[in-house]
Amino acid sequence: MATDNNAPHIVPWWIYLIIIVCMIPGLSYPLLSTLAASTDATVRGLTWFYPVYTLVSGLLAWMCYGRRTLLTWILLAMLILSHISFYYMAFTLQQVNIYR
């Protein structure tokens, strides 16, 4: 029996919840960080680009669920790892004060 790749896929409510919880740290980061007011254009640009990356990752994870479920989990894992990396970078830069 052939499957129709264009058929709409149903995403369970708990996947929506997981995706939203994974996206919250990245969406709120520029509002909570002093890096958004940095004088370094690269640091400031990355700080404001990070929510865009978070939105795109969440959207792609939602779109992949059902057809490529493993890719959804890979995208969410990469999103969480990027949160850890970005927060580490931000707190390291704040302590060293090289972003001013």
Please, could you describe this protein's structure?
With 100 residues, this protein is mostly helical. The longest helix is centred in the last third of the chain and has 28 residues, at 69-96. The mean pLDDT is 81. It is built from three helices and no strands. It starts with 12 loop residues before the first helix and ends with a helix.
Topology:
Blueprint: H1 13-32, H2 41-64, H3 69-96
Helix pairs in contact: 1-2, 1-3, 2-3
First-residue to last-residue Cα separation: 62 Å
Q: Please provide the ordered H/E string of secondary-structure elements.
A: HHH
Alpha-beta classification: mainly alpha
Q: Given the structure, what is the number of helices?
A: 3
Helix content: over 70%
Overall pLDDT confidence: 81
Unreliable stretches: none
What profile does the largest beta sheet have? none
The strand count comes to 0
Q: Which word captures the global form?
A: elongated
Rg measurement, Å: 17 Å
